[in-house]
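(Protein data)
===
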Amino acid sequence: MDEVDTVIRAVPPIVAQLRKLSPYWGVDGPVADPEKALAPAYA
């Protein structure tokens, strides 16, 4: 049970960091159109 408790405490910050890195996740949740998230942006 101690291992389960450790995982429960450790996983949420990891998921939050991965969401920050993901082009599929915006501030308010998953992006509506993932293809636009990966589309190249030209200046």
About this structure: The mean pLDDT is 89. The two ends are 53 Å apart (CA to CA). The chain has two helices and two strands.
